[in-house]
Specification:
Helices cover 29% and strands 22% of the residues. The chain has helices at 2-12, 14-17, 63-74, 146-152, 173-179, 183-205, 217-224, 257-261, 282-291, 326-332, 347-360, 412-417, 443-446, 449-471, 484-491, and strands spanning 35-36, 41-43, 76-87, 92-101, 112-118, 126-131, 136-142, 164-171, 208-209, 231-240, 271-272, 312-315, 377-383, 392-397, 402-408, 431-438, 475-476, 498-507, 515-518. It has a 7-stranded antiparallel β-sheet with strand order 2-7-6-5-8-10-9. It has a 7-stranded antiparallel β-sheet with strand order 12-15-14-13-16-18-17. The chain is globular, with a radius of gyration of 22 Å. Residues 99-235, 396-507 form the Nitroreductase domain.
């Protein structure tokens, strides 16, 4: 019951879920990247191409191609510096600087890490950590682990056809130090944004991919040498140049994490965090423990009755997928704060935005028994000053490529009153999107693991929305500091058994006065 209450408060009453009297020790914050030491290091090529257009798909990628792939997914791509006025009466200024990646992160803290199991010709087979700060690989464990991983994934993947497997982990302290218990919600969303970027980059490289949310956690963490009191894997993503890696469950096979732990010796690689004092985060560890799987076979999501969203249908113009230069779009992606400007958004732009985000969101995963993908997260949106559409709150019906009006009128002031901080002026925003999911997060099928899967899927859709907006020369700013109860009321989500997971103001913007350095050659 305490875990259910924690997740409820995390979403609907964050003050109840937060640690009281929390003070952030900025001087003792962790690094935004993990640093291993005293291990073999393999530098990756720094001559990053300026575009991916016209590239040939190799029969099997080499180390240079892997370096490009990892940099696009999670490499450090930008240094920025800007000035914040602290006290106008004393003319005090604070200079802020940060290292950014193409995949955004709450507070630019990047709680996730990337590990890869690689089997390519110019590199010893084994488990590597992607060191984003130095753009290199660090060898954690050398060897051939196809059988071990096949067992840990419940015999649902043909790893012999894969040249690599990516592991997305979460380091709890990396954003707990700032957001305390609220970081549990953020960590799943951040992982999802990263996975969304990874899947999109994989498409551009011609790699087949899919997301495994269910696996033997302790066996995977053991393989990577992770200490589960500080870090745990959230998803496993095999990569192949052949679209044949997926295989059905082998009935009767029951894999146990305890058995796998005996197959390979433990490793304890040394790493540097920077923080000298790490506070305890018992609720995050309890949630992680409750979400772990110790045996297979794993479960599919149970089918349930879909509730129809009723409302006046507003058809959108038919459009095709947006064609854009991927790297250029990643480079110009921007999260405006007070930089939004209320420009006119055309009906065609809105149609492209919604269609592109939902069509690009389709992906293979291990929680659906069929290949027919039914999205578990959807888009609701408050619109203002959109050409040809009355102001109001709408549901985007991706099957019909149409809007359904739920609540007419201008909702910007109401949404503004529900924000916990005034960092975005919604009066200047024509599109305020909400990614929405089921309140029960498929708990009956997936248990508490369903919550973090839902957050990851929300993050994946967020990244598709941000990329589509950037391709259309608009900016988007994902926000969790909003009144969920209020936004749910605007769309009458209670009647649907759904709730708002994240809010994204989106629209035209002006350039911010800041210093930007692009970190590529």
């Amino acid at each position: 019951m305490i875990l259910d209450e924690f997740l409820h408060n995390l979403h609907f009453d964050i003050d109840q879920a937060s640690i009281p009297n929390w003070e952030v020790d900025w001087g003792d914050g962790p690094l935004a990247y993990k640093l291993y030491y005293d291990l073999p290091e393999i530098p990756l090529s720094l001559d990053i191409p300026l575009t991916l257009e016209g590239q040939e798909v190799p029969d099997k990628p080499n180390l240079r191609k892997i370096g490009y792939f990892l940099w696009l997914v999670y490499g450090i791509t930008q240094f920025s510096q800007y000035v914040i006025p602290m006290d106008s009466s004393e003319n005090q200024l604070q200079i802020m600087h940060s290292l950014r990646r193409f995949a955004p992160s709450g507070g630019a803290l990047y709680p996730n890490e990337l590990y890869v199991y690689l089997k390519i010709d110019d590199l010893p087979e084994g488990i590597y950590h992607f060191d984003a700060s130095h753009h290199r690989l660090v060898l954690l464990r050398e060897g051939h682990f196809d059988d071990y991983l096949t067992d840990a994934l419940g015999y649902r993947c043909d790893l012999t056809s894969c040249f690599g497997t990516v592991f997305v982990s979460t380091m709890f302290w990396k954003n707990f130090f700032k957001y305390n218990n609220f970081s549990y919600r953020l960590q799943g969303l951040d992982a999802g944004v990263l996975i969304g970027q990874l899947l999109e980059v994989a498409k551009r490289f011609g790699f087949a991919s899919g997301v495994y949310y269910q696996f033997l956690d302790r066996a995977i963490n053991h393989l990577l040498g992770l200490t589960e009191q500080e870090e745990s894997v959230y998803s496993v993503i095999p990569l192949s140049v052949e679209p044949t890696m997926w295989s059905g469950n082998r009935h009767g096979v029951n894999s146990l994490a305890t058995d796998l732990l005996q197959e390979i010796p433990p490793i304890q690689p040394k790493h540097y965090v920077r923080s000298k004092k790490m506070k305890e985060f018992p609720m995050l560890l309890k949630m992680n423990e409750a979400s772990m799987l110790d045996s297979s076979p794993f479960r599919w999501i149970e089918e349930k009755e879909m509730r129809t969203v009723e409302g006046m249908v507003v058809p959108l113009p038919p459009v095709k997928r947006v064609s854009y230069d991927f790297m250029s779009t990643c480079r110009k992606r921007f999260s405006p704060d007070m930089d939004f400007i209320l420009g006119k958004v055309s009906l065609q732009q809105l149609a492209y935005l919604l269609y592109e985000a939902t069509e690009s969101f389709r992906y293979r995963n291990d929680i659906e028994e069929t290949l027919i993908y039914e999205p578990r997260v959807s888009i609701f949106v408050c619109l203002y000053n959109i050409e040809g559409i009355p102001n109001g709150a709408y549901y985007y019906d991706n099957r019909e490529h149409a809007l359904r009006q739920l609540n007419p009128g201008d909702h910007r002031l109401q949404l503004q009153s529900g924000m916990s901080s005034g960092n975005v002026n919604l009066q200047q925003v024509p599109i305020t999107l909400h990614v929405v999911g089921d309140k029960d997060y498929d708990k009956d099928s997936l248990g508490y693991r369903g919550y973090r899967i839902q957050q990851m899927e929300a993050g994946m859709l967020v990244q598709r929305l941000l990329l589509a907006a950037s391709a259309l020369d608009m900016g988007g700013h994902p926000l969790l500091g909003f009144d969920v109860n209020q936004s749910d009321q605007i769309y009458n989500l209670d009647s649907l058994g759904k709730t708002s997971l994240i809010q994204i103001p989106m629209g035209p913007y002006r350039q911010r006065p800041w210093l930007i350095g692009r970190l590529y050659t």
